[in-house]
Amino acid sequence: MRPSILPILATTLLVGAPAAAQTLTGAPCAFTFNGTPVQILRTDAGALVPEGLVPAEAIQSLPLAIGTPAAASGVVTSVSRPGGPRTAHRELHLTYRSKGGSLYDLGLYGRPADRDEGGEWRCQRLDTRDCDALLGTPSTLVFNEELRLVFRDWEGVIFDFPAFRAKDLVRLNGAGGLTQAPPAGHDPVQVAVAGSRNVFFADADGIIWRLWQKGEGWDFQKLSNGGATQAPAALGPLAAFCCGPSLHLVYADPRGAIFDLDFDLERSAWGLRQLNEDGVGATKAPLAAAQASPIACLAGDSGDYRVAYRTADGAIIQIRRQKGAFHADQLNAGGLTSSPKARHDPALQPQGSGPGCLLTYVDEAGDLTLLVEEGGGKAWSSVNLVRHQDLSARVKPGPRSEPGFALESKDAGASAAAPAPAGKPAAAKAGQVADAADGLNQLLAKWAEKQSDDASSRIDQGKLFGRDLVRLGDQVTKWFKKL
């Protein structure tokens, strides 16, 4: 018998974040900017913790976050003065959803493309006044020298958002959208393919869909479950990347099998490969943890790539495609290193300008563990980057008021983010509902594990409970909007 979700919702809203000790949670936001490895971490209270490049004073006073920030970088050209020459600069953007229901962007502007220092950090609240019930983590991309975001709301509508042009925010699906694609059940992800933006997502049933720019408009396509391919449904979010002449979508199904749904750009054909599971997949690697977790991916050269994920018992598994062959290794807990078991999902990033890669994850003790590949794929070492007992000294309270925090414009010609309209608390209250949903998702995983020893039964029961939660969230959000 399923428990009532109303008492749990009330408890989540009233309890709030812990006032004292904080611990790291979720997968790190890990990336390499201009050859420098960077990690952005999040505590269970929503504070952001930088590791490398990002100055602490630029991030410690930001509004509290829900979910892992998304990173995007690129080279843009600008004019330093009227009539002056155009110069190339590197921009870095860290975008996240706050507990108040707003989108924030912490950007590094004006760093010369040929230098490792310089530039200015600016924080902006992005104007999303037409969709104040955001859900999940946005997907970011610097495309045609502009920061573009895609994200979903409570109703599964996917929005395409030029970050500094709020008036151009458009719906890509749902009622009044540019396509007839169904509502999203998981966060969308975007990638640039052959000069065009593509957006991928899974609906509430796990069916995978593609949205892409076609001329002046958008089109859509069903990719799995009898669409363009016979690929199985996805349990959680997708990872999308281009590698060599192919586009890859990597995801886990409800059993924890990892699939690579790839599109050959030269032959215009879709292919499908299962990467793990003895006797079935390309490797004998074990199944992933049976929950909606992201799969970490890193594209290499000449069609090579890496996939990393967490198993139910805390092992970190890496699958490498190298010269057409697949190899799998356990990296922690008695595998290639003795580093501890993982509590949360891993993140992959290049090892600066050198060969190999870096893998980071939050372990059972709440520490951030770094695994470094020293060459050849088999030689790894580990180190603790951030220890749980030292975290309190790195998390400063700072002013975290919302809305209208540190509003700035990107330049003189950009429109500044508008403060929330007075007397309309819908955005903040919808953010509280989102807080409740995030807490309930964690309770859901624990609840489902107690229902059955059979993995497929746990997933089926969890999906039913999750759908009840989405329906409740939708009703509560609509009620708040009427206030």
Derived from helix and strand composition plus strand pairing, the structural class reads mainly beta
Radius of gyration: 22 Å
**Measured distance between first and last alpha carbons:** 35 Å
Sequence stretches where pLDDT stays below 50 over 5 or more residues: 1-19, 406-432, 445-458
Q: How would you summarize what this structure contains?
A:
Helix content is 14%, strand content 40%.
Brief descriptors of the model:
27 strands, 5 helices, 4-stranded antiparallel sheet, single chain, globular, mainly beta, 483 residues, disordered N terminus
Protein architecture, described:
- Among the domains are: 27-126, no CATH class; 425-483.
- Helix content is 14%, strand content 40%.
- It contains 5 helices and 27 strands.
- The protein has helices at residues 6-15, 56-59, 391-394, 426-449, 455-481; strands at 24-33, 36-43, 48-51, 65-79, 86-98, 103-112, 120-126, 134-143, 146-153, 158-162, 170-171, 189-193, 196-202, 208-214, 217-222, 239-243, 246-252, 258-264, 269-274, 296-299, 305-310, 316-322, 325-330, 347-350, 357-362, 368-375, 379-386.
- The strands form 7 sheets. Strands 4-5-6-7 form a 4-stranded antiparallel β-sheet, with helices on one face. Strands 8-9-10-11 form a 4-stranded antiparallel β-sheet. Strands 12-13-14-15 form a 4-stranded antiparallel β-sheet, with no helix packed on it.
- It is globular and about 60 Å long.
- The two termini are 35 Å apart.
- Residues 1-19, 406-432 and 445-458 have low confidence and may be disordered.
